[in-house]
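$ fold --in a.seq
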Amino acid sequence: MEDRRKHIDSKLAGESLVATSIRRQSEGAIRPVLPDVWFILIGGSLFDRGRTALLPLADRIAALRTRHQLAVFVGGGVRERHTYKIGIDLGLPLGGLAMIAGAIPEQNALMIWAVLASRGAVRLSKEEIGMMPVALSMGQIPILVGQPPYHYWEHPSAESLVPSHGADCGTALLADNFGCRCVLLKDVDGIYDADPALHPGARLIRRARAEDLLRNGPKTLPVERALLEIMCDTRSLTSLHVASGLEPDMLERILDGDQAGTRLDGAHA
């Protein structure tokens, strides 16, 4: 009898997806979902500084949304690190630490939402991320937590009991997935060749490659080291910016296409 079934020709169907030759065949063009959107991470260290840091930055973000589409992500800060310390004292495993620390960024997200609520901010949970295009089309500023929801599935590390994937990694992963541009705002001007708190003569690195920083970079960085590993494999997010949230002018310059802070390039920049 003639076989009239439709057979779909696929190089992936009959093979293991861990085979190197098959994985190479999966490469293809990636369609950016939200290419005109900027993801802005407000680092936890800025929340630690309170109103003197957050209110001027919030004012500038509200003003910039009239010219740019922005989504704001938040980190945890010192309260998150205190939570890790207590969890380690109690002997919690890595995944348990990743679970309990998530409450701190949630608090920060609600605080920055409250500051920006009268100017169009809307709080979105990770389950509501599909509503981001709707919020942006209405001129709103989505507020989200940057911490990736690995939770009990957090990657183990040989170097530390503390989860290595925080708000830097989560914001960059989402930016890569949606094809967005990305700025990480910290309490320093960018990435230096040494810790500026210990070495007053440290030099600001205007542009750096993630793989170079992994091999030869300073021991102290303003971004998570796991972010550098991620940037070696991103496809849509070919570069991101690290700048100071204490100087809102830096954010405006970056969004307008000027140089400020450090540009961190991935492998595909």
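$ fold --in b.seq
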Amino acid sequence: MDLNPQTLLSVMLFVGLLTGGASCLAWLQDRKQTVPMWMALAMMLLVLGLVSRLLIPFLPGTILSPSLVLTSFGLIWTAGRRLRDLPPLPLVIFSPVIVWLALCCFPSFRDDQNLRVGLGLFLLLLPISLLGRELWLRAEASPVMRRALLTIIGLQIVYMFQGGVRALLFLPHGHEMPFQLLPGFARVMLDLIAIMVALSFGMMAIAKEQSERRYRDAARCDFLTGVGNRRDFEDNLHKHFRRAQESGAPLALIMVDADSFKAYNDLYGHRAGDQCLRFLARTLEQCCRQTDLVSRYGGEEFVVLLPNTDGDLALAIAERMRQGVYESRITHAGRPEGWLTISLGVATLRHQEREATPDALIDSADRALYRAKREGRNLVRSEIAQHRAEREREMQQTQETNGSALSEG
């Protein structure tokens, strides 16, 4: 590719301004997402580095241009770290630059063009390889975009490695010529610009997807406790209820209420009440399995959805929750026990009932919860046990009636 310096300079400035401007606009739209900002800075430094190599005299350009290019790739790696919410590491960002500046102190290095090209390419391998690692670890990213970026990075690593080996081992050393006259100089510069553009738009796409996912999660998350909110619970309840009816699998629900919570707020203040609710949410999650879903139902009430769980197991989990809160010994002077306690109501889906609906399951758990509160609180009660007791009473009454009829006969 034969491009004169003026044409190449114009192309680089145009592409750099276009890509950097797009990154800045993306950042201004969502300043909590800093990936576009880091990519804009990286593009700016890359263009400055390449332009300085064309415009600045030999020695200053030799020192400045690669330093800016190496820093720009360090910023790209930082953008990759920000995708995983990791902080920048300035020492790693600038370590290739420090090595480059140290090498420039040796005249034998400064005066050997191919030696500089070869070692410069090898120094670029560090940040671009680290960027590949960040994208590889970012498993939640769009699989298509992630694979595309990893493919680009892999090809670039191979290209830089073979270019470095060629410059160090197969090209003559100890000579110097104007940079514009080097064979393939335009291709190298355009390659750096092209990979920066591809990485910029690819990583901004991942960042946008990540922001949208966070907003969706925030809309389904209780801001105080961090567990699911009522909307999230109802969506999950209908989904698992439908699956349970289709497969005949068991489904259980636990309603949880903090005992005398208004008195707790009056005694210790609303800030302490908020901390208490966060503690309850953590404790309930710790008592659950990975498949169970804890949500805040409203106020001091929580609800736990237990897929593939029968009544006996649900009662055992509820009892574990009750004990976990009681044994934590959170002071509550408004309770007879002196500690914070919870009451729990358990219900299960009964497939044989025609009127079985998600709302009926909630009502059943709610009735069991209020039985626990009426009978003294700090208890686990279940509609299952109540139905069993009612059936046993009915059977006993039937047996007594049949026995009386036989005796009269």
